[in-house]
């Protein structure tokens, strides 16, 4: 099979005669590309100079060699590989095809990839690879257009019925009064309906775009690659064919590729194949598929296909992520909406029946005071027009009664909070987490990186029972120094990169590994490349959170047989338990008896009490005649190191604010009890002098409790040390059974079950694995506990904003239904017309949702107890506030309806305008009341919410326009200054009423 890339214009032929032609073509292609690239660089440079308005000082001429074949920087890889065959290798898992292509080594050579140093990092070369093989992106299904949102809004049954009535009204009106005067009633309703539909569609369209943007950000994961010999993290979208990708536990594989080297690499391919069994990746099964996850071990792979050329890309391009996810709160609100809608429908049917009966019995009058219906005399057109008007009024009551604004308010507040939380270092992956976090009663948090800075530094080193002070290199015996060098250099997943001898070393890896390597390079002056060149790894036991240790089996590179060595590194007390001997400062091996084991244990405890993480190194030599295995007993202790990881600034204040808010904080860590206690006291989770017998527990102890004991003690436990991921899962399950709403932080692959089990899973953005992030609801981008508290504040804010809007909207619903029902049954007419009710609907549904759903969280939210699972959506406080306001509005407006003409000395049309204007202004003033459910000062923090003030101002301006300039459209009459003052005064009384009502205890 040919390895030559098949260009679409002229397919390359495998004949030897065509080789010169191919080379010339490649040379020409490179020349053209270099010329275009150079021109682009000059244009970019020119723009920068012009934008800075500076003169560029240069030589009198610049020479550019576009045929720079000898320059390594300008060299473009030839990439003469059959793209289809290359893409099919990993996807088909065909060893035969791999063999025909020359194996992994030949493919790497064809892609101009160095198996150790990776590809060149120059921009032109990377761009060329993207041009040839494509980018690592998949085509997404087209997003919903604005017109589709318009169409969805028109699918609402009540809107359709209202439009039909409006069209009938338009037709009858034109027939009865002519086109000049007859179109107003029907046309006004049609325009009002279109306005409501467009505003709703615009709002939903914007929120949809917002969720899509957040979805794209959540899919942009970081990938570790090797380019030019340097390990670096890049976006998954920047991975190209030929890249060397480093894989570790928890990583999501970014593209299809082939295994190069590694140890114990196991992959979960269930996302691609549906098989739950883990697949071992090695030389005999080197195929690595995009979208799968590393569950164990570590290794490197070479990328052979990206984006749409992978099976994962094809699958993802056909999946449209569901952005219309219904959250639990939305589900509860939909039930409430349905219930209120049914009441509204019942009222509308009663109003319709009453009005029809009154009309056909001759009890209604037209504008001139004549009877509306006289049997045998009234024309059919007039009858039909009156019936359509009555039906429009009844249907509009349904439109106003159904609080469509509730789901919209949830969407708005969730979208707003998601955007703000992103700025506060929290990326929401699941909408429901925003609101659920507000109900959280317990937060189970990790220690490392969440409560602490995750900036490790070795501050103590013990050799045997001796504490090593400064200038320790000369004090360590040569044999111990050599073994420590092996242990640190070979039993690690970190890497030291030094471009040349004069440059500073760059260390990459986990914070613990980086700290140990930095200590070895800077303090012990170790050359870590030497052991890597002289020894080969035979077996590796990768570190994971259950074993809390890692081990290697190594043998010296030599032709003659040589002994094998075992090195272990991990949690100090666990490694010491595996040891029967130790090295002293002189390099002599001594046995560990009970007394010395106690002394070493005390050293570990003392380090832990200083908040140090204790790591131990152990070694044993396996003679040549024995079978080489990773021995886990009878080891010799090499030394102990203590790593300091200081607490994050502000974490103590954050913990205290959670405790003040009634939220329990439980620290779950893999460190030993003494380190855990010290950090918990430093962070404020524990008090220094309290009894810690029940507050602090080890994972094994918690695991061994009976279910009854666990449930009895779960609320008292605040620190769990030496815990496994299973212990964390067990604690979450127990807390949920106890009625708690649980939030859990996690960063490892093994934390995935606990993150999924919790009500809110919080993964870490920096140290978290892709498996943990995928299992979580929210990603804490800076790994900081303070950001967890910020998420809690926003969660409470979401719930509080929804409650504000519910109170506001239900007040309008109750008032509108009561006024129209009472007026219709008593006088036979509806005081608020269809257009007026649609305008009120727009104010409360869209503008009200925007105003109240975008309030920022306040400190007051963190002084209340958690909502928990059982608290009702509409509290007693809300019922008190909304009933008082609704009764006031109904009383005032019914007084205007029945006595308005005599009180103010106005005609029927002005009276109806006064009712409409007062009703709208009551809602405007009541929006201020809704800002604070409990506090009497409703203006606190008002100056910070410009959107609220803007919406209030816009509503008032539009209301003035409706009353003063759109009389025919809104069926209103102009009001004088005194009448406007009366409307405003009546509406403003809702403020003192709201203040007085809040004194009533509930």
Question: Short summary of the structure?
Answer:
The protein is of the alpha+beta class. The protein is built from 34 helices and 26 strands.
The rounded distance between the terminal residues' Cα atoms is 83 Å
Inertia-based shape: elongated
Largest sheet: 9 strands, mixed
Q: In what range is the share of β-strand residues?
A: 5-15%
Radius of gyration, in Å, reads 37 Å
Fraction of residues in helices?
A: 40-55%
Calculate the mean pLDDT score and round it.
82
Number of helices: 34
- The overall strand count is 26
Taking pLDDT < 50 over at least 5 consecutive residues as the criterion, the unreliable ranges are 1-25, 45-73
Structural category is alpha+beta
Describe this structure in words.
By secondary structure, the protein is of the alpha+beta class. The chain is built from 34 helices and 26 strands. Helix 25 links the parallel strand 24 and strand 25. Helix 11 (328-360) packs parallel to helix 27 (785-827) and helix 19 (594-609) packs parallel to helix 21 (673-683). The radius of gyration is 37 Å and the shape is elongated. The chain starts with 18 loop residues before the first helix and ends in a 5-residue tail after the last helix. Residues 1-25 and 45-73 have low confidence and may be disordered.
Topology:
Elements: H1 19-52, H2 83-92, H3 95-100, H4 103-110, H5 123-133, H6 146-154, H7 157-182, H8 184-218, E1 222-227, E2 230-235, E3 244-247, E4 256-268, H9 270-273, E5 278-280, E6 287-288, E7 293-305, H10 311-317, H11 328-360, H12 380-401, H13 405-423, E8 426-428, H14 431-437, E9 442-445, E10 457-463, E11 466-467, H15 478-490, E12 495-497, E13 506-508, H16 511-523, H17 529-534, E14 535-541, E15 549-556, E16 564-571, H18 572-577, E17 579-583, E18 589-591, H19 594-609, E19 612-622, E20 635-644, H20 651-660, E21 664-668, H21 673-683, E22 696-698, H22 699-704, H23 707-713, E23 719-721, H24 725-737, E24 742-746, H25 752-757, E25 760-764, H26 770-775, E26 778-780, H27 785-827, H28 834-852, H29 876-904, H30 908-931, H31 946-964, H32 967-970, H33 977-988, H34 990-997
Parallel strand pairs: 9-21, 9-24, 17-20, 21-23, 22-23, 24-25, 25-26
Antiparallel strand pairs: 1-2, 1-3, 3-7, 4-5, 4-6, 4-7, 8-26, 10-11, 10-20, 12-13, 14-15, 15-16, 16-19, 17-18, 19-20
